[in-house]
């Protein structure tokens, strides 16, 4: 029996979850993106009757299938890891978090599981339209499943629609719609799903360029490029728009994360956005005198504008958030110490409430409950000891954020260029551009993983923002057990990834002609 | 009418139903455990893999939904069991992860590990996935070794609510012979159902003949282990809950009394058993009969549904702690709030539509039995 909390248990549990999530996110975006592209291609086939579209759709479906299987494999681990590694968290929020997951199973997974088999095995068994519907329903199932898990994740970033019940000692849902339609959830859903569309488009453009480079399958490749570059351009513009929404949400609700994204220690009015910069690795504390950057290029006032829609708005830095005392729309902010004090009062009030309830002392119980509820917004701070704990690892938030943004802008330029050149029939002669498209595929993955690093490492130390820090969310198991499963899964996922890449490369080399021959 | 208690019962009913469906769909795992023994040639192996491969996602999805539904409706069960019985769940999950890629990857060029490794993964999933799930479900009757104390959350040094006491974290369930009996019963049931499924789906004389032989080999041990578990459980003490105080206490023959006191559950349970036996026996004794899977499948759903209702319902703990009896989880202390259960109950109204489209899609793909030629012609075959 493991009684006291062990820092290495928390770290290994985080590492295991992060590893599983990052592996999972290697496969999911391609599922979402390829799903859309193959569905569009099959629609073109049904509309125009051109066999070329069917051939293209079938080729990308084969790739989709290989990728889908491994996404499912990593996904099941992720779902159950909430329980195996974060048992306190599961209890504390199961009332809210569990519902979207259950709905995901009922609504989305069965849709995917059912129609994917018609998509693969039904070409000769069902009619054209039924098959097309099955393809779209498979894609829809994948997309809806992303909706529910992202609703749950958004709730962790911005808990809403709930109240704490001291009798059951957990948060309980009181408003389903405010959880589903929370601005963070909606934005997160679109930003994340669309990032998958962009990756899918980069993948199809890149692989098609490989065919052009090898002087194979020209018609198929150009056909695929035209569809996916247009889809990619629209998606990447939408990604920029929803990315802006994400930054705005973070500024409003997770100021520490925003400050970490920008390496901002000292808040200011009219804060600029760092275009590129290097953090000072010597800086260890929020209140030492070292400069935060070794080098930076800043776009004036942009951070204030993006975060608050006002070019002169005050953006608090890490030091301000810890020391408090600055004004926001909802009044003057508390310092870390004040929040911690109120958190401690909330935790103590809960203990006192439980004792009073046991003794059936209703007057005292009511008093403690009132005290608990008054301070509940800061409940999680009561578990923290030091202000430095409030600050996530800056370099794991700052650099991924900037890499993601720079890549996002690059993708827009690339898609626009490829689209124009392919319609002008010049792309097929520009092998340098074909090379760039091919080499850009991994960058799509880098951008997606970087985005998740910003979202999740930037959330630290919280499992649920302000309510539950990660060290209170874990399961009561030994760090050694988690370390062992970490390495087991690392070996398993890595082998499967290598196998997947091996299969994909072979399948791509076979090319779409293989589909035709096999028919 | 729709009280909090009704909703808690409704959700335990749905979880029991999902458990029943999962037990039926474990025929995929049962089939995987027979890939090497039932087939002699590569063509036969491929045929078996492919008829199973068109169904594996249903089992997998049902397992995921089973987990999600427990998380949502009985979060304390989810957190206590998964976070406590860590190792047994991790092994189960590990072998389901192996399964998820093994169909798609096994015959594709460049798959790193080779065809036989992936088939071995399927075998492993069939062996461990079924047996360990059975062992875990048995602990719902025999109890586990954990403590739940919601006051822990106010202790920043030791805030975890559910604590497993046994250092083996779930694997200690294997030391209890009654748990092992149910594990073996589930394992042999899944193989029995797989034999019936092959008889129904596979258009291959030799395989059908061998499946009929395998039906004998697996149905008999299934019946023996299942009866051993059920009789043993009916003769043993159960974990009763005092309806007013909520106190949990050991009560003689609790599960048998539950059966007698709930005629609807008894009918479900017995109908299920009759269905399973009818499906098996008629297939065994009638050479041209191939529909056994439907009777045995439906029977499995009903029997497991009935069995799981014996815990939870009728003032019985649904996940007992054998060592700290008062920590046992019950419908009322482990469930989500009334509001959450209501929201999810509305969502659950969609389930019949899900069942209808699954049935429709299943029919659309399986108008006739599958043969070797069809597999060899299909570019997407595994």
The percentage of residues in β strands of chain B lies in under 5%
> How many DSSP helices of chain B?
17
Residue-averaged pLDDT of chain A: 92
Class by SSE composition of chain B = mainly alpha
Indicate the overall shape of chain A. globular
Strand order of the largest sheet of chain B: 1-2
Fill in the keyword field for this structure:
heterodimer; A: 519 residues; mainly alpha; two-stranded antiparallel sheet; two-stranded antiparallel ribbon; 10 strands; globular; B: 382 residues; 17 helices; 68% helix; 4% strand
3D structure, described in words:
Chain A has 519 residues and is mostly helical. In chain A, strand 9 and strand 10 (468-469) form a beta hairpin. Chain A folds into 3 domains: 7-259 and 394-507; 263-331, no CATH class; 332-387, no CATH class. Chain A is globular. In chain A, helix 6 (183-213) runs antiparallel to helix 7 (218-253). Chain A is 71% helix and 7% strand. Helix content of chain B is 68%, strand content 4%. Chain B has 17 helices and 4 strands. In chain B, the strands form 2 sheets. Chain B has a two-stranded antiparallel ribbon with strand order 1-2. Chain B is globular and about 65 Å long. The termini of chain B are far apart.
Q: How would you concisely characterize the structure shown here?
A:
Chain A is mainly alpha-helical and 519 residues long. Helix content of chain A is 71%, strand content 7%. In chain B, the strands form two sheets. In chain B, strands 1-2 form a two-stranded antiparallel ribbon. A two-stranded antiparallel sheet of chain B has the order 3-4.
């Amino acid at each position: 029996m493991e009684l006291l909390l062990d820092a290495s248990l928390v770290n290994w549990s985080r590492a295991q979850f992060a590893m599983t999530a990052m592996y999972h996110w290697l496969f999911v975006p391609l599922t979402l993106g390829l799903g859309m592209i193959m569905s569009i291609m099959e629609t073109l086939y049904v509309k125009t009757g051109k066999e070329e579209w069917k051939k293209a759709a079938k080729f990308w479906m084969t790739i989709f299938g290989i990728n889908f299987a491994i996404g499912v494999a990593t996904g099941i681990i992720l779902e159950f890891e909430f329980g195996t590694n974060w048992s306190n968290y599961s209890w504390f929020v199961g009332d809210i978090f569990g519902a979207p997951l259950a709905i995901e199973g009922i609504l989305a997974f069965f849709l995917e599981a059912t129609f994917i088999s018609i998509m693969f095995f039904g070409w000769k068994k069902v009619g054209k339209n039924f098959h097309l519907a099955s393809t779209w329903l498979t894609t829809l199932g994948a997309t809806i499943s992303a909706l529910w898990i992202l609703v749950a994740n958004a709730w962790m970033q911005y808990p809403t629609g709930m109240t704490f019940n001291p009798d059951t000692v957990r948060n309980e849902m009181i408003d389903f719609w405010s959880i589903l339609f929370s601005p963070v959830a909606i934005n997160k859903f679109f930003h994340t799903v669309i990032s998958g569309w962009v990756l899918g488009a980069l993948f199809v453009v890149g692989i098609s360029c490989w065919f052009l480079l090898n002087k194979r399958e020209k018609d198929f490749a150009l056909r695929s490029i035209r569809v996916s570059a247009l889809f990619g351009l629209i998606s990447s513009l939408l990604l920029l728009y929803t990315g802006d929404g994400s930054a705005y949400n973070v500024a409003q609700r997770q100021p520490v994360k925003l400050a970490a994204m920008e390496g901002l220690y000292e808040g200011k009015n009219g804060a600029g956005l760092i275009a590129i910069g290097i953090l000072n690795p010597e800086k260890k504390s929020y209140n030492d005198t070292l400069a935060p950057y070794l080098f930076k290029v800043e776009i004036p006032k942009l951070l204030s504008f993006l975060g608050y829609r006002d070019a002169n708005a005050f953006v608090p830095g890490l030091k301000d958030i810890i020391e408090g005392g600055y004004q926001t729309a909802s009044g003057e902010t508390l310092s870390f110490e004040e929040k911690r004090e109120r958190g401690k009062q909330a935790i103590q009030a809960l203990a006192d409430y439980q004792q009073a309830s046991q003794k059936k002392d209703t007057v005292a119980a009511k008093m403690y409950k009132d005290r608990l509820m008054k301070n509940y917004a800061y409940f999680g701070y009561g578990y923290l000891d030091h202000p430095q704990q409030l600050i996530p690892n800056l370099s794991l938030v700052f650099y991924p954020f900037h890499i993601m943004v720079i890549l996002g802008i690059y993708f827009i330029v690339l898609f626009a260029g490829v689209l124009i050149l392919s319609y002008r029939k010049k792309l097929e002669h520009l092998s340098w551009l074909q090379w760039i498209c091919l080499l850009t595929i991994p960058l799509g993955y880098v951008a997606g993983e970087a985005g998740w690093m910003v979202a999740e490492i930037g959330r630290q130390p919280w499992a649920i923002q302000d309510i539950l820090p990660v060290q209170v969310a874990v399961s009561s198991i030994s760090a050694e057990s988690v370390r062992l499963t970490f390495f087991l899964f690392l070996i398993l996922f890595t082998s499967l990834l290598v196998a997947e890449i091996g299969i994909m490369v072979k399948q791509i080399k076979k090319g779409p002609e293989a589909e035709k021959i096999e028919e | 009418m729709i009280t909090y208690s009704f909703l808690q019962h409704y959700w335990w009913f749905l979880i029991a139903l999902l458990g029943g469906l999962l037990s039926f769909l474990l025929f995929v795992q049962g089939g995987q455990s027979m890939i090497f023994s039932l087939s002699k040639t590569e063509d036969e192996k491929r045929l078996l893999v492919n008829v199973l491969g068109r169904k594996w996602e249903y089992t997998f999805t049902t397992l995921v939904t089973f987990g999600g539904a427990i998380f949502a409706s009985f979060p304390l069960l989810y957190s206590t069991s998964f976070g406590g019985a860590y190792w047994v769940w991790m092994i189960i999950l590990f072998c389901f992860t192996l399964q998820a890629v093994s169909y798609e990857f096994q015959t594709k060029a460049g798959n790193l590990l080779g065809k036989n490794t992936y088939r071995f993964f399927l075998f492993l999933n069939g062996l461990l996935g079924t047996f360990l799930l059975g062992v875990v479900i048995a602990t719902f009757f025999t109890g586990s070794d954990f403590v739940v104390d919601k006051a822990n959350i106010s202790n920043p040094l030791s805030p975890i609510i559910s604590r497993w006491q046994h250092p083996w974290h779930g694997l200690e369930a294997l030391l209890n012979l009654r748990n092992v009996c149910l594990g073996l019963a589930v394992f042999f049931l899944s193989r029995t159902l797989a034999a019936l499924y092959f008889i129904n789906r596979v258009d291959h004389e030799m395989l059908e003949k061998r499946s009929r032989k395998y039906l004998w080999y697996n149905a008999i041990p299934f019946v023996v282990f299942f009866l051993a578990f059920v009789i043993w459980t009916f003769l043993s003490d159960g974990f009763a809950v005092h309806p007013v105080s909520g106190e949990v206490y050991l009560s003689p023959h609790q599960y048998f009394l539950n059966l007698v006191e709930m005629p609807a559950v008894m009918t479900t349970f017995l109908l299920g058993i009759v269905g399973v036996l009818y499906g098996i026996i008629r297939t065994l004794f009638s050479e041209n009969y191939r529909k056994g899977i439907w009777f045995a499948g439906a029977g499995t759903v009903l029997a497991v549904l009935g069995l799981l209702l014996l815990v939870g319902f009728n003032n019985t703990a649904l996940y007992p702690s054998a060592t700290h009896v008062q920590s046992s989880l019950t419908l009322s202390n482990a469930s989500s709030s009334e509001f959450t259960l209501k929201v999810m109950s509305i969502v659950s109204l969609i389930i019949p539509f899900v069942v209808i489209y699954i049935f429709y899609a299943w029919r659309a793909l399986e108008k006739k039995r599958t043969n070797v030629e069809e597999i060899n012609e299909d570019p997407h075959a595994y």
